[in-house]
Amino acid sequence: DPARFFFRRAVDLRPTADGLGGLGSSLYRSGQGSAEESLALIDAALAIESEYVWALRERGWIALDEGETDTALAAFDAALALAADDWNAHYGRSRTLAEAEQYEPALEAIAASIASDPSRYWTYAHRAFVLRRLDRNAQAMTEARRRHAGQRVRGGAVRLDGSSSGGVRASEAGGVRGSAAGVGVVVGRAGG
C-alpha cells in the first residue's frame, strides 16, 4: 500500500498530526493494522492538533466499521462542534444513527449533510435508505430515482442492502448496512 509506506516514512522523519492520522487510517483501511492500533495513531494526531476535524471524523468512521455506535456518534459530534457545516460529519452521524435504528434523527442528520454539500450523490442514496426504514416507501423510491438514475460508479460500489462490488467496506463506499429492499440504489466511494 503506497499510502501506508509514505505516511510511515513521513512519521519516521517528523511526527505530525497529518502523518499520524494518515498512517492510522491507511493501516486500518489496508487491513495492515487493528482498529486499536489505528485509533492510537489517530489519538496521537489529536494530541498534536486537538481540533483536527478529519481525524475526529476518521475516528468516527473506524468506530462505525467496528460496530461501536456510541463512540462513532461522539466522534462525529465532536467534529461538528468544530465544523458545523461539515457534510461528511453529518453523513457519518446519520449513518451511525441509522445503524442504531434511530431513523428520525438519522433523517435530520442526512438532511444537514445534503444541505452542506448537495453534490455528494451517495448522501441521497442514504436518505432513500432511511426513508425506506421509516416505511416512507414512495418517498424513498422517488428520492432514489431522482438522484441516482444512470449514476456512474467508480472504485467499487455498495448497494443499499449493504452488498458490494469492488471489495470495499461500507464506510469507504458510502453504503449502509441493513436491508433496503425495493430501493435498488448503488452508491460510490465517500470522500472529503
Question: How does this model look, in words?
Answer:
The structure is a single chain. It is built from 10 helices and 3 strands; from the N terminus they run H-H-H-H-H-H-H-H-H-E-E-H-E. It is 64% helix and 4% strand. The chain has 192 residues and is mainly alpha-helical.
Helix proportion of residues, in percent?
A: 55-70%
- The assigned structural class equals mainly alpha
Q: What characteristic shape results from the CA principal axes? A: elongated
Stretches where pLDDT falls below 50 for ≥5 residues?
152-192
Order of helices and strands: HHHHHHHHHEEHE
Major sheet attributes: 3 strands, antiparallel
Read across the widest sheet, the strand sequence of neighbours is 2-1-3
On the 0 to 100 scale, the average pLDDT is 78
The beta-strand count equals: 3
Distance between the termini: 20 Å
Features:
3-stranded antiparallel sheet, 10 helices, 192 residues, mainly alpha
Present the secondary structure layout.
Elements: H1 2-13, H2 17-29, H3 35-48, H4 53-65, H5 69-82, H6 87-99, H7 103-116, H8 121-133, H9 137-148, E1 157-159, E2 164-165, H10 170-173, E3 186-187
Antiparallel strand pairs: 1-2, 1-3
Helix pairs in contact: 1-2, 2-3, 2-4, 3-4, 4-5, 4-6, 5-6, 6-7, 7-8, 8-9
